[in-house]
Structures
1.
Amino acid sequence: MSTESLHNRRERLAARLRGVIAGPHVLSSDEELKPYECDGLSAYQVVPLLVVLPGSIEEVQAALRICHEEETVVVARGAGTGLSGGALPHAEGVLLSLARLNRILAIDPDNCCARVQPGVRNLAISEAAKPHGLYYAPDPSSQIACSIGGNVAENAGGVHCLKYGLTVNNLLAVEVVTIEGERVTFGGGGLDGPGLDLLALVTGSEGMLGVVVEVTVKLLPIPQRAQVAMAAFDDVETAGQAVADLIAAGILPAGLEMMDNPSLRAAEDFVHAGYPTDAAAILLCEVDGGNEEVSEDIAKVRQRLLDSGADEVRTASDDSERARFWAGRKAAFPAVGRISPDYYCMDGTIPRKHLPRVLREIARYSDESGLRVANVFHAGDGNLHPLILYDANNPGELELAEEVGGRILELCVEVGGTITGEHGVGMEKINQMCAQFPPEELQLFHDLKAVFDPGTLLNPGKAIPTLNRCAEFGAMHVKAGDLRFPHLERF
Amino acid sequence: MTDHDIGTELAERVRDAAAARQPLRLVGRNSKAFYGHAVDGETLELAGHRGIVRYEPTELVLTARAGTPVSEIEAALAANGQMLPFEPPSFDGEASIGGAVAAGLGGPRRPWGGAPRDLLLGITLLDGRGRILRFGGEVMKNVAGYDVSRLMAGALGTLGVLLEVSLKVLPAPAVEESLVLTLNHEHALARVRELARQPAPLSGACHVDGRLYLRLSGNAASVEAWRTQIGGDGGNEADIWRDLRDHRLPFFASQQPLWRLGLPPATPRLACEQSVATDWAGAQRWVHSDCSGSEIRTEVAKSGGHAILFRHGNDETPVFHPLDAVRQRLHIGLKQVFDPAGILNPGRQYASI
C-alpha cells in the first residue's frame, strides 16, 4: 500500500471509477457510505473506502479492472442479509454492490430453468416461474430479501434441503467476472459442463474467487400439494429419536424442523402459530408431492410420530393453518429478537444422532454463562441454530455470547459436524475454522484462492484464517471422532 | 475380499512417485478404463483399499473406502431400504465407489436423483504430494471452506486420489414402474418436456429405437395415479434402465465413435445427431455421427452444451470438450495446487492437466 492518504486515495479512485460507472453510482461521502458498514451481522461494522453499484456486466468488469490495477480490495455484496459478516466492508477497499443487476433475464419452462442477474431476490424467481407451474427450491428464511448472487456465494440452504438440496444442487451455471475483469461461465446449459466442476467450487466461496454476475437456476414443478404435521414432545430426546424413526421408515420429508421450548414459546407469542407452549419441543414435518402421495405419506408420518412418543400430533386442516404452523418457524429469529435485546445466531451442523448430547452441553454452557439459549433445528439435515440471548449494553455480554458460541461450534466439530451449515464462515466464524481444519488444509485453501485471485484482492481476510491467526487464537484442530469426553455413551 | 485400509501405503507410493516425478495411472476396479485418454504411467491399484467404514441408515450417510465395489454398497443400502440416488454405471465390469465418484457419471435417475457431485458430502483425499487431507464431512449441510470434495467428482483422479468418500443416500422408492410409449424422437421429447413441468414422480425418461420409456418411482398411490394419466404400455421393462446405464442396449454395440452430448433438455435434435439414444429427459444424448469432432462440438456448443467422445475415439480427437482460455488457466492452476509434480493421471482429462 502506498503512503497516499486514505482521503486522497478515495477521491482518486472514485474519479477513476466514475469514468466507467455511468450515473451517480459511485458513492464516496460519509453519509452515503454509512448504510453499507455491515451486512446481516450487525455486530461487525466497517465503513468502506467507496461503494460502487454497477448497472451492467461491462461495468462490473471495468470496475474490477481498475481495482486490480490499483491493487485495491473488492468486497462483493448482494442484498446484505448474510449472517456471518461475509459482506463486511474493508476499510481500504471498494464495496461492490450487485443490487442494481436485478433483472430476471429469462424463464425457460421448456428447459425448466431461469437465467437471472445476481441482484434478483430469491423469492422473485419462484414468483416469476409460478405461471409456468415451476419454482426455485432453496428457500432460506430471508428469501423475501436475499439475492440469488448472495445465495450462490454462501451456498444458502433453507428448510427444504433434505429433499431438495442446497443452492449448489439447484444451479445449472454461473457467470463470474474474475479479478482481472474477464468473464467466464462455470457449468452449462445442460446438467453439467466440461472439465472440472468449477461451478461447485465457486458456490459457497463467499466472494473470494470471483464476482457472480449471472446465475442459471434449475426450476422444479410445484408440488400438487403439501401437508404439514406438528408433533409435541415432552422431552427433546424423544423428539430427536422421532426424527430418526421417520427416516428409518423410509419417509423423506420436504421439511423437518424442530424447535425447543424457549424458541417455540417466543414464536407463539409473536405470531400465534398455535404451538403448544408447554411442550419441551415440537417437530414440524412437511411432506409434498402428488395428491395421492401426500395423503398416504402424511398418514404414515402421523402414525410414526405417535409411535415414537409424541404427546400430540396435529395435521394442518387447511392451507391457512399450514401457513400458520410455518409462520412460527420462519419467524423464530425475529421472535427471539423480541424477548432479548440482542441474540447471536449459530449455524453448526451435527450428525443427528448426537443431538441429545449437543443440546445437553448447550444447556450446560447456558447455565455456566447465565445467557439464555433458544434452539431452532433443521432436524432433517442436522443443521442446528442455537440463538444465544444477550444484551450488548451490558459490558462484556457480547464477548460472553461469542465465547459461548465458539464453544458450541467446537462441540459441533468434536461430534463430527461442522461450524457452519448454511450461513458461511465470513468474518464471524473465522477463528472456529482453526478448530475445523488442520493447517495443511487451510494452506491448500489459500493456494486454491491464489489460482483465482493471486493478489488476494477479493474479500480478503474472510472465510479462511491465516495460519498465524490460528496460532494466535490458540485453537487446535479438533479431530472429529476424537472426543473430549470418552466416557460418554456413543452409538 | 475383506475390508482393508491401505491408505498409508498408498500415501507412501504417491510420495515416492512425486519425488521421482513418476506418473501414476490410478485404477479402481477398471470398469471405465476406456474413458478418457490413456495414461502412460505406473499403475496405482486402489481396489485393495476397501470396505464400508460407516453406515447409519437413519443418518442417510454412508462412508466407504474408494476401492469398495458399488455392488457391495448397493447391497448394504438395499438391506435397509435405501439407495445411491445417482445410479452409477458399471459398464462391463464392476465399478468401485471411488471410480464412480471420480468419473462423475450418473445413470438414468440423474436428472431427479442428482449426480455423484450432488450426493458427495466429504472425502479423504491423497493429494499429489502424498498428503492425506480431509474435506467436507458426514453431514448434509456444510459450507466451511471451499468445496474441494465436489471439485473431485468428475476430476478423473487428476487432482488427487480419493481414499474415502461420504455420500448422502436416500430411501428407495416403495414402488417403481416403467411405461413404454411408441413415439418418434420429436414427439417423445415434447411429451417428456411436458411431463417434466408437472409434479410427476419421474425417475427415468429415455427414447431409444422409436420408443419412449418412462420410469415412475414413489409410493403406490402416486405411481398408480400417474401411470393411468400417462397411459402407454406397462409391463416388465425394468432391464431397460440397467442396460441403458451400462451401455448394453443394441444401440451401443456399434464400434463407431460414441459421442455423449450434454444439452439443455429441450434442444431440438441437432444435425449431428444422426443416430441417437436420448436419456435424462433430453439432457444426455448418445450419438453416432458421420460429422467430424469439431462439427459436433461447434453445433453442441451453439446450443449451450458440450460433447464428450465417450468411446471408440481416435488419438487425434480430444475426448473432452476444449476449454476457453480462462477455464484452461484455472484448470492448470488447480492442478499445480493439488498435484505440483503432475503425476496423478496426467493427460487423462486434458493434456494440460
2.
Amino acid sequence: MRVMDFGSRADYWAAMMPAVVLALSAVVVLMIEAFARPGAETAEGAEPGGRASVAFLVTMYAMATALVASVSLGDATGPPDALIALDGFRGVAELVLLGAGLLVVALSRDYAARTGMRGGEFHALLLLALTGMLVVAAARDLILLFVGIELMSISVYVLAGYARRNPRSSEASVKYFIMGAFASAFLLYGIALLYGATGTTRLSEAALAISSGAAAGDLLLAGGVGMLLIGLGFKVAAVPFHMWTPDAYEGAPFPVTAFMATGVKAAAFVAVLRIFTVDLAGAHAQWAGAVWWLAALTMIVPNLVALQQQDLKRMLAYSSVAHAGYLLVGVAAMSDAGRSGALFYLGAYAVTTAAALALVSHLAAGRGGRSLRDFRGLGWEKPWLSAALVVLLLSLAGFPPTAGFVGKLFLLRAGLAAGEFGLAVILVLSSLVSYYYYLRVVWKMYFEESPEGASGSAPALRGAGGFRWIVVGCALAVLAAGLFPGRLIEGVEAATARAPVAADGPEVAGVEVGEAP
Amino acid sequence: MNEAGGLAALGLHGQIAVFTSAVLFVIGAIGVLMRRNVIMVFMCIELMLTAGNVALVAFSRAHGIEGHIMVFFVMAVAAAEAAVGLAIIVAIFRHYGVVDLDRFRLLRW
C-alpha cells in the first residue's frame, strides 16, 4: 500500500501519469503527422491488411502504457481531501476507458482501410479525448472535472465531423457541438452555484459541508445539483436531453460513433456515479426524484423509438441511449452495489457496443447499405462474423449466457436492494421490449432470403488489421464473462469497496514513500 | 475562508452580481432555444458561460480565491470551444451554404 500525501509535485505527476502519457503521445502523433512526407500519408488507406501506420502504433502503445501506469497506481492511496483520487473506483474506471479506447482504435483500422480515412489527427484527437476522460475519472475537484469534461468534449466535437467531405458528418458535428456546449454551460453554472452553496470547489469538502448541514441556502444547493444533473444528463444522453444522440451517432464516422457510445458515455457516467452517489449523497433529497425520472424515461422512450428504426446504426444509437437508462438505475440505488454494478455494466457494454458497431459497419459495407433489409440472409454467407454479431446483440439485449445479462442482473439486484421496485420493474419490462428490435436483426440474418445479387454487389471484403480476430474475440469475451462472471464481479466489487468515501480517514498501514512509477 | 454562507454572506453587491448572472444565463438559454442561426446560438452559449463566470466571481467575494481560479480555466476552455465551434460552422457552411439549424435535416427519423 503506497501512500501519496501530495506534499511534493512528484506525487501529482505520479498520480496523473496515465493522463500525462496520453497527452504527450497525442502531441507526438500530431508532430509525426505534421512532418510526415506527403507520399506517406495514405499508407493506412492504401493497402488493407498492410502495415499499420506509425500514428496507429504510437497510439496503441501509448494507451497500453497508460494502462500499465494506471494498474501500477492500483495500490496507492492518498488523503481523502486530495485533488486527485487514488482508489479502486478510479482504477476500474480507467480500465474501462482505456479498454474502450484500445478496442476502438484497433477496430478503426478496418474502417480506415475501407474508406481511406486519414489517421493522424484521428489518433491525436482520440488520445486527447481519452486524456480528458482519465482526468474526469481522477478528478476530486470541480475545476478539474470541468476541464476534463471539456477536453473530452471538444476533442469529440471535432472527431464527429472528421469525415468533413460528408455533409452528414458535418451535421452530426454541429448538432453535437451545439448541444454539448449548451450542456457545458449548464454544468458550469451548476458548479458555480454549488461553489456558492458549499464555499469550495473541492468535492470532498463540499460533501462535508453538505452532510453537516452547513451548505447554506437550500436554493443554491438545489439549483447547483439540478444544473449539474442537467449538464451531465446531456453528456450521458439521458432522455429529456438525448435528442442530439441519434443524429450525432448516425452521422459520425463509425469509429467515432463507437468512441462516443463507449468512452464518452463511460466517462460521463463515472463522473455521475462519483459525484452524485458519493459526494452529493448528503443532498440525496434534492436529486433522488430527478434521477428516478431520468432513469425511468431513459429506459422507456428510446426502447420504444428503436422499435421502428430501419437503419442499424441509428437503432444501435437508440439502444445506447436505453443503456444509459439501465445504468442510471445503478445511480439511483446509491450504494456500493450500484456503483460496482454500473462499472461492470459499463465495461460489458463498452466491449459489446464497440464491437457491434464496428461489425455492423463492416458487414454493411459488404452489402452496400446498413438498413435492416440489407442484412437479409447474411447469416449463411458470413457465418463467423454473423455469429459474432448475434452474440453481441444478445448481450445488448441481456440474454442469459452473456456479459450484458450479468450486468443487468447486477443492476437489478442493486436497485432492488435499494428499494427501487418501480425502476426494477421498468428495467425488466423495457428489456423485454428491446428483445424485439435486437432479435429482429437476428431473424433477418438467418430466416429471410438474401436479396438478389446482394453478395455480388460489393467486392468481397477482407477485414484489415486482424478485424475478424478482434471481433470474434470480443464476442467470445462477452460469452466468457457471461458464463464465468465470478472473478470479474469479485474484482470490481473489491476495487470499489475501498472506494471513495470522503469522510473516512486514509489507511496508513504499511506506509511506503510515494514515488513516481 | 470556507464557511458556507449562501446568498446572505455575499452582501448586497454580491447578491446583485449573482442575480445579474442568473439573468444573463436565462437570456442565453432562451436565445439558444429560440434562435435558429448557428452563430447566434453559439453567441448565446458564450453568454451562458460568461454568466457562469460572473457567478463564480460573485461567490468568490464570500468564499475565497477558488472561484477566481476557475474563471481563468473557463475563459481558456471557452476560447478553445470558440475556435473549434467556428471551424465546425465553417465546415457545415461549405456543405449547405447556410448556417440555419432548421436546414440541417439529413439526419432525422
3.
Amino acid sequence: MKKLSIPALAMLFVACSPKAPATYSTANSVPTIFPDYTDITIPCNIAPLNFLIEEQADAFITVLKSTSVEIVIKGSEVRIPKSKWNKLTNAPEISVQIFGYTDKQWTAYKPFKMTISDEIDPYISYRIIPVAVEAYEKLSIHQRSLTSFKENVVFANTMVHNNSQGTCINCHYYRNWETDNMLFHVRQYKGGTVLVLNGELHKVNMKTDSTLSAGVYPAWHPTHDYIALSNNRTHQSVHAASHDKLEVLDDISDLILYDIKNNTVSVIENDSCELENYPAWSADGKKLYYVSYRYEGGYGDKRKNEMFLAREDFHFNLYSKSFDPDTRTWGPVVMEYDAAAVDSSITWPRVSPDGTKLLACISTHGVFPLDQIVSDYIMFDLTSGSYRHVDELNSPFAESYHTWSSNGKWIVFSTRREDGVHTRLYFSHIDENGRFSKPFALPQRDPEFNREFLYAFNIPEFMKEPVHISPRQFASFISSTEATRSKYESKREK
Amino acid sequence: MTVCENSYFHAFSNEKIGKNAIFGAISYMHAHAIIYMTHISKNKLEGLPRRLFKVLPYFLAVLLWVILATYGQYFLKKVEDLSIFMFDWQYFKEAIQIPGGFLGVAGSFFTQFLYLPWLGSLIWVFLLLTTYQLTVKAFKLSEIFKALAIIPVALFIIGNMSLGYGVFIMREQDHFFAPLLGYMAALIPLFAIRHIKTFGNKIILLVLWTAIGFPLFGTFALIGTLSASCVTLMNQEILRGKRLSILVVSIALIILIPLIAYNFFTSYRLADSWHLGLPTISEDVWTHAIRSPLQLALLFLPVMSLISSRFKENSKSSKSIIIQVSIYIISIAAVWIFWFKDDNFRTELAMSEAVDRFEWQKVIDIYQDAVNSHAKSDAKAYADRTAKLKGVKNQNTINEIVDSYNDRFFEPTRTMVIYRDLALLKMNRALDEAFTMKDGGRPQNSRTQIPMVFQSGKQLYLQYGLVNMSYRWCLEDVIEHSWSYSTLKYMAMHCIIMQESDFAYKYLNKLNKTIFYRNWAKEQMALSCDSALMSISKPYEEILPYMCFENRMSNDMMKSEKFLMQHFSEPEPPHATPEYDRAALLWAMRTQNIPLLWQRIIPYLISNNVSVLPRGVEEAAFLYSSLEKKGIELPYSKEVKDNYDAFNRYVNSNPIRNMKEAAYPYAQKFGNTFFYYYYFIRNLQTY
C-alpha cells in the first residue's frame, strides 16, 4: 500500500502543479509588479525577489526561467521558494513571463528579465526609525541577511532606557565592513559611543572641554586606528504646511579625529563660521572629504531661529584635507566641488572601495537630505575630476544615505521613492563604465512589506559578517559601564 | 429604605445619570448593610443573606454596566480611540515582541468594542462577572464567603476608572482589558494543579506553564505559578517535603524563566522582566498609582491560595455576615472614592468626540450644558461665600476666603474653551458668540498637567490647517505611547489633505483591517485619489481655507494654545481667506493685545465683506478705542455703547477689592461681553 501511495501522491502533486498556459494572446506592456523588479541587475547571492502582480485579471501564472530551471507560480503574490531561487540565480539571467487570465483567456504580458551579476556582501544593518519626529522611545539597529530573509536586532534602546529616562541610538558604522570593529552612539541616559574593538566592548565619551559635542557622523580610517567624526549641535523644526515635514540643521558643527589607541580627540576643522560635516575617508586613508557651509550670522539665542529662516541659503560645498596617518598631520583645506555656485548643497560623500569614485547627495539646500522633498545623487570620478548627476538612481523623491559594498560593485541607499515619506532600502549595481543599474528594493518575504511597514529604514551599511555580540551583551554593557572620557590633543598641521 | 430606593430610581430616571446613580447605588447598599447589622432578626439571617449574596453580584454588574454605558461612555470611547487592534500579521508580530504581548493583543481585541461603549462595557462587565465566578471556583469559596471574590473585581474597576487624564499618556493602550484577562490566565495553573495527582506531574505543569505562559502573559503567568505552588503548599494530603519542593521550584521558575526569556526579546530592560504586562504611564508617579490596584488584585491570588481553606465551609454566624457585608461596602466605597469623577474631564472627552465627528453644534451644546448644569451650585457657592465674607475687612482674610471657595465655582479648562472656539469658528459664529460664553482656565484635575497637545493637539492643528503639526503630534504620540485608531485616522487625513495618496494608503490600509473603521477607511481611500471630491468633502472643505498661509518653520514647544496664538499673529498671508481672517481676528482678541486687533480687523472687514460688525468684535473695538482714546471709527451700535456705560457705572458703584471675588457678580451682569473677558479673564496659564 505504501509503495503504491507514494508515486500516486507524487503524480497527484505533479498534476496539481501549475503550468504555463499553452494558448494565449500577448500584451505589449510589461506588467506592473510591486516592488518593481522588472529588468534589473541582481547579485547572484540575493534572497528571493518575491513580488506582487498589480494588473487586473482573475488569475495569474508566473514563469521564472533560467538556463537550468523553470519555476511556475500561481496567483498574484509571487513567493519563490529559496531552493528553487538558488538554482535560478545560478545562471546569467532569469526571464520572467507573467500570464493574466481575463474573459476566459490567457494573456501573456511582455516578459522581463533579471540579470545575475556580482556577489554582494551577505549582510546589511540599518536603523528602524519612525519618520519625522523628535521622540525616540523605540529605536533599534537591525541586521539582515541579504541571502535570506533572516533579520535580527543588533541593539534596541528599549533594552536600556527606563520609563522616565530616554536613550537615543544612532550612527552605527563598521571598519572595512567587518563587525569586529564597529561603533554606534548612545545618547542621553547611559550615553557614550559604544566601540567594539577587535570584538571587545568599550564606551567612550568623546566630548572634551575643547570640542563642541560627542562624536556624531563617523568615518573609520581604513588602515589606521582613527575615526573622523563630526561634532554637531542639531535642531529640528516642523514645516507648518508643506510636503516637507521636517527641517533639520546644525547651528554649529565641527570635525574631530578620535585616536583609538590613545583615547584622544583632536580637532580636524572647527572654524567658527564654517559648518563642517559628514567626514569620509579616501580609500587609502590619505585624504578626508567633508562638506561645509560658511555661515556668518550671529551667535546667541537667536542664532538657531535665524538659521531656520535662512535655511534655503545653506549650500554646502565639498572639501578635502590631505592626511598623513603615520604622523597624524593634516594638509590644507581644498575645495573639491563648489555646490553653492549652482545653488545646490552637497552632503553624505562616500568614496568607493577602489578609491576612484565619490558618491554624494545633492539637494537644493541644507545638510540633511533625508528630510528634503528632493535629494539626488551626484558622482565624482576621482581620477579625472569629472562628475555627473546619477539620473539612473534618482527619483522624484529624496535619496539619502548610501554605502558601497566591500567589492565596490553595489551600493545600498535609502530612498523615499515608494510613498514620498518612508525611506526604503534599494540596491544598484555599478558596471565597469561607472553606470548604475536600475535600483531594486530589499527583498522581503512578504512582498507587500514595504507598503505595510509604518517605520523607516535608516543608515544602511554593508557587512561581510553578522555582528557577533548579542543584544543582551550590548544592553548589559551599556547599562553597567560608565563612558571613559577622551582627552583632548591639539591638531597637527603641515 | 424607601427613601434610598427612591433616590436610586430617581437617579436612573434622570438623563444625567452618572454621579447621582452611583451615589444612589452606594446609598442603597449602605442602607442594606445597616439594616442587616441592626434590625434583622436572627431567624431571618439564614435565608435572606444567602439570597441577597446570590443576587448581589449580578445586580451590581447591571448597575455598573448602566453607569459605564451612560456616565462613563465618553471615557470608554476615548480608551478605544487611543487603542488599536488590527487583523494584520505585522501588527501581531510587533505586539508579541515582548512577554505579555499576547495578552496585549487579546486586551486590544476586546478594547475595540468600546467603540460602542454599551457593547464594550457589557463585555467588560461580563468578564468581571466571569472573574468573580472563576475566583469563587478557584478557591472553592463557600456561599457565604463568595464576597471575597468581589475584592479583585473591585480592584480591576478601580484600576481602570481611576485613570482619568492618564489615559492620554499610557504607554500601552491594551490596559482596559489586558490585566483582567491576565488575572484569568493566572487562574489556569491554579485549577490545573489540583487535578494533577503526582508530584512529578505537578512540577512538569509548573515548568510548562511558566515557560509557555511567561511569553504570552508576562507577569500574570508568574503570579499563576506562585499561586499554584501556594495552593499545593496548603494541601495537607501531600508530604511536607514535596510541598516545599514545589514552592522552591516555582520560585526558581519565577526567577529563571524571565532571565532566560530575556535572551529572546529585545524590547525591554532586564529589570522590567517581573512586571511585564502591567500598564505603564510615561510619568513614573502615575505608573505606580495605576499599577497599585492591579498589583493588589494579583497579590490576592497567592494570598487567597494560602488562606482559602478557611473559607470553604459555610458559616451562618452573624459575624460572618457582617464581614461579608463589610467587604461589599468597602469594595463599593473604594470604587466610588477612586473612580475619577471630574466634570471638566468628562466634558472635554465629550467635546473631543464631537470634534472627531465634526459635529460643531454638538461641541457647543456640550459646553453650554456643562456651564448650565453648574449654575445652581455656582449661585450657592456665591451665597455661602458672601455670608462668610460678611463683616470681614482684612484684605488678607478676604483673599484667603475667596481662594478657599474657588473650587466650588465652575470654571472650564482651556481645552474646553479652545474646542468651543473651534466649533464656533467652523460655524462662523465665533466673533458673535465666543465672548458671550463662560470662559476660564481651570487646571486639569490630574496628578500632573498633561500637555494640551497630547490631549487635543492633532485635532486642533488639523482643523486650523496646521496639518504637518497635526501629523507630527500623531507620530510623537505613536512613539511616546502607541499606535491608535485616532493617530491612524488623523495621519490619514493629513495625507489626504496634502494629496499624498500613496502615503495615505499606508494608514487607510491599516484601518481597513479593523472592524469599526473599515468603512471610514474605504470612504477616505476614494477621497485620497480625488482631490476635487476631497475639497468639497467634510472635514477637508472646512480645513483647506485655513491653509492659505505661507509655509514656515514652527515648533510649538508642547504648548498648543500659545502656538495657535502665535500662528494667527503672523503677518497677514497674501491670499488670506475669509475663514482665516475670522480665526486670526478671534485669536487676536484672545491675546488681549490692542494693536493686534487693529491689525487684524481691516483684513477681516475686507475679506468677509462685513456690513454689521459681530458683537464681540464691536465690543472689543469699542473698548480698545475707549482705552486708547483713538482707534478706528466704526459704526458702533447704541447697545454696545450703553453696555459699556453700564459696565463702567457698575464698576464705579461696586468697587473691586478682589478680582476673583468680583468675578461672579460681574459675570452675572456682563459675563456675555468682551468687556468682562478683557478685565476678568487674564493671565491664564496655557499648557
4.
Amino acid sequence: MGTIGEAVRRRRGGLRAGAAGRILDFALIAIIAIFLILLGTKVVAQGGSFFLQILTFAVANGGIYALIALGYTMVYGIIELINFAHGDVFAFGAFLSASLLPIFGLREGGTFTAGSVIALLAVFGLTMLSCGILNISIERIAYRPLRHAPRLAPLITAVGVSFFLEGVLFLWKGPSNVHYANIIPNAGFEIFGATIGAKDLLVIGVSIVLVIGLALFVDRTRLGKAMRATAQDRDAALLMGIDIDRTIAATFFIGAILAGAGGTMYGLYYNTSVFDLGFSAGLVAFTAAVFGGIGNIYGAAIGGLVIGMIQSFWDGYFDSAWTQVVIFTILILVLIFRPTGLLGMRVPEK
Amino acid sequence: MTVEVIPPILRVDHVTKRFGGLVAVDDVTFDVKKGEIFALIGPNGAGKTTLFNGITGIFPPTTGRVIFQDREITGAKPHQVATLGIARTFQNIRLFEYMSALDNVRLGQHCRMHAKLWDSLFKTPVERAEERRVSDRAIELLQFVGIERYTHTYARNLPYGSQRRLEIARALATNPALLLLDEPAAGFTPQEKVELMGLVHKIVDNGVTVFLIEHDMKVVMGVSRRIVVLDHGEKIAEGTPEQVRNDQRVIEAYLGKQH
C-alpha cells in the first residue's frame, strides 16, 4: 500500500515540477483572486454588519465541516481508504442526539438551566460514544476482512455501508426533513450590528476544543504515535510491538466521535436533519479533507473551516442554488492544480 | 569434546509453511542458542524470509511450533512477539520515512513505555521523565550503531548504509533478547560488510542473541559459528562453517550438480 502511495506522490511531484508547476500555482492564485475581488465588491455594497453576521455563520459552519473532515482524513491516513460511510455516521449522530434530547429533558421552549448544560453534555457524550462504537463495528465487519484485498474492494464496500446506513436512517425517521429541537437559548450579544448567538459560540467553541484535543492526542500520546507509525509503515509498526488492529480501530473510533459531536452540533445549529444528510454533508467534508491535503489532520481542520466558510459566504452573497457547484468546482480545481492539497506537500507526516 | 549445555533461546520445531500448493518451508527444525550468532543461509527463494515471518507472527506457520524462551509463540500476533523480546529488521528497509532517525528509534521503545493517556496529554512529570529516558536511550542507540550525526534527519534522507544501521538501532530499541536480521549486508560494499560484522559482534557482546539471514556466504562464514542451510524450503545442512562449506548438498544447492 505504502509503495502505491509513494508512487502517486512521486508522480504528482513530477507533474508539479518546474515552470509548469509555477504556472498552475499562478492560475490557482488568479482564480482565488477573482473570487475575492467579486466578494469584496459585494461586501462593500452590503455593509460591514452583514459581513460580520455572515462571517459568524461561516466560522460555525466551517467548524462542523472540520469535525467531519477529520474523520475522513484520519481513516485515509492510516489505511488509505475513503470511508464513504463516514458522512452517514455523522448523520446518525444527528439523528441519535435528536432522539436523546427529550430523554434528557431537553425540550424546545423549555428553560435552559445549569442542569440543561449537564444534560446536553450527556447527550453529546452518549452520541459520540455511540458513533464511535458504530464506526468500530463498521470497520470490524466491513473493512477488516478486506484489509489485504485489492483496494477497490473496501472502497466499494464503503459505498455499500453508506447506502446501508442511509437505509437504516430512512426507516428510522422517514424520507422527509426531521425537525431537531431548538433548545439553545436565543440569547446573544450584538457587535457592530451583527448578532453573535449562543449557538454560534457553542459550535465554534466545541469545534476548537475538539480539534486542539485531537492534535494534542495525535502528537503526544502513545496511541497517537502508534497511529502515525502505522500510517507510515504498517509492517514495521507491527514489529515495534504496535497492535495494528487496535490502532486502526482507535482511528475509526476517534474519527467517529468527532463526527458524532459534529452531528449533534449540526442539529443544534440548523434544527433540521434528513436521512441522506450524510451524503451531501459527507461529500462536502470529503472535499474539505482533499482541499486540506488528505491524510493530514491539520489540513482537514483548515480545509473544513475554509470550505464551510466558502459555503456560507456563497449562500450569503451569491445564489445559494450554486453553492454545491462552487464547492465541487473547488474540488476539481484542487485536484488539477494542487493534487496534494494545501498541506499535503509541506507536512508529509500523516 | 565437551557437550555444551547452553539452553536454546529459540526452538523452531518441525515448522512447515504452505501457501496454497506451494511448500515454502518444509518441516524445518533447529535451535538457536542463547548468546550466539546463528545464521540461516540458502539460495534465493529457499524460504528464509518466510521462516522469519513465521517466527515473528506475520505469516504463522501452517504446522509445527515456534518456542521462544520456553514459551510457545506459534500463532502469536507480531506485536505480541515484539513485546516478548524478538526484534527484526527487513530485507528491504522499512523505516518510518517521514520521521527523524531519533523518532524512529524512540518509536522502537513504544512497547516498553508506560505513560498513561493523562500523563501524555498534560505532560506530567511521569511523562517528562519517561520522554527523557526514551530520548537518551535513543541517542545512545544511534551512537551504538554509529549514525548519531543523522539524529535529526528524516529517515528517508539517510544514506543507504545508515538506513540499514538505523533499522538495527530501532530494532534494538524494543529491548529484545533475540534480534533477527534479514540480509543486513544486502547492497553493502566489502568494506561496509566488514564494519557491519563488527556491529553484529558488538550486539552479541551486549547480551542479545543474533539470528541472521545472509546471502553472502563469505560474510556468514566470518561471523557465525553455527549455520543452517535451507534449499527449496528444506533444511539441507546444519553445522559449523567448515562442515557446511564442505557439505555436498550445500555445494549443489549453490552451484548446481556436477555432471
